[in-house]
Design goal:
It contains four helices and three strands, in the order H-E-E-H-H-E-H. The protein is α+β, with helices and mostly antiparallel strands. The protein has a single domain, classed as GMP Synthetase, Chain A, domain 3 (2-Layer Sandwich), CATH 3.30.300.20. The protein is globular. The relative contact order is 0.16.
């Protein structure tokens, strides 16, 4: 990836976190953390990886709320970041945090069994 693509991805990550936290008032959207943004080389599409605290139902509701707010979010990104074309946004869950916490709990369980 080029330096420009990386800079745009990092700037989008920062701005998306701010937009979701302060601008979106949808009650379906829970506590969301933007963990990563991947932008294609031509800056046409962006995949936003999010982490959401809560149950499976709350996560699904948050994803629905974010999907319906794509137009607003894209407009805000376009105003904040000067690009010729604002990338299309797709939201996906970042499962790495849940996976890491599962591994950590398994390791602590093994350690406790070993100590006994």
């Amino acid at each position: 990836m080029s330096k420009r693509v990386n800079r745009v991805a990092e700037q989008m990550k920062k701005e998306l976190g701010d937009i979701i936290l302060q601008k979106l008032k949808d009650p379906r959207i829970g506590f969301v953390t933007v963990t990563d943004v991947e932008v294609t080389g031509d800056l046409q599409q962006a995949t936003v990886y999010i982490s959401v605290l809560g149950s499976k139902k709350e996560k699904d509701q948050t994803l629905k709320g974010l999907s319906q707010a794509k137009g607003f979010i894209r407009t805000e990104i376009g105003q904040r970041i000067r690009l010729r074309i604002t990338p299309e946004i797709e939201f996906k869950f970042d499962e790495s945090i849940a996976y890491g916490s599962r591994i950590e709990s398994l390791l602590s369980q093994v350690k406790n069994e070993k100590d006994e």
